[in-house]
Amino acid sequence: MNTNLLRSVLFCLLSIFAIQHAQADDNEWPFKEGNYWEVTGIKVADGAGLKYANWLAKEWRKNLEFAVSEGWLESYYVISNVHPRADEPDLYLVRIFKNMATAEENEKRQEKYMAWVKKSMEKMQDESGDRAEYRTIMSTSLLQEMHFRDK
Predict the structure, then answer these.
(1) H runs (alpha helix) in the chain
(2) How confident is the model at residue 140 (pLDDT cuts 50, 70, 90)?
(3) pTM of the model
(4) Which of these, 2, 5, 93, 124, has the minimum number of CB atoms within 10 Å of its CB?
(5) pLDDT of residue 13
(6) Do residues 135 and 42 make contact, with C-beta atoms less than 8 angstroms apart?
(7) Which residues of 73-100 are buried (b: 16+ CB within 10 A; e: fewer)?
(8) Per-residue pLDDT tens over the stretch 95-134
(9) How far, in Å, CA of 83 to CA of 150, rounded?
(10) Is the distance from CB of 96 to CB of 73 less than 8 angstroms?
């Protein structure tokens, strides 16, 4: 009889722990936040594909390699929309980073970048305006990876 009582008490205790664990899992969000993905959709003007591809391969890539070397970006990609419809981007420019920088951190990054790039803000704005002749920014989205929690 003592053995049955001991088994019953042990069963009740284990059941309580199991129920508490299940309730804790039910109250935990099933995802962990991951990296941010900034995705910019680009429409390239007819006949300007090579010109824009060359700019991406040289200037854009050089700038993003600097950002990776500083730890500001994790990675970056150019993704082609192989069969774009008329209202869709031809390319997606992707920049991946771990977290959002504070305003103070952005100021420091801007100073460091301007010293590295050795161009005035006016010159960079002019260059951006020149690219508007052969490419259109259709949209920019900020996405965040969501990773399943291990159970």
Answers:
(1) 2-26, 49-55, 61-69, 103-117, 121-131
(2) very high
(3) 0.79
(4) 2
(5) 47
(6) yes
(7) beebeeeeeeeeeeeebbbbbebbbeee
(8) 999 999 999 999 999 999 999 999 999 999 999 999 999 9
(9) 37
(10) yes
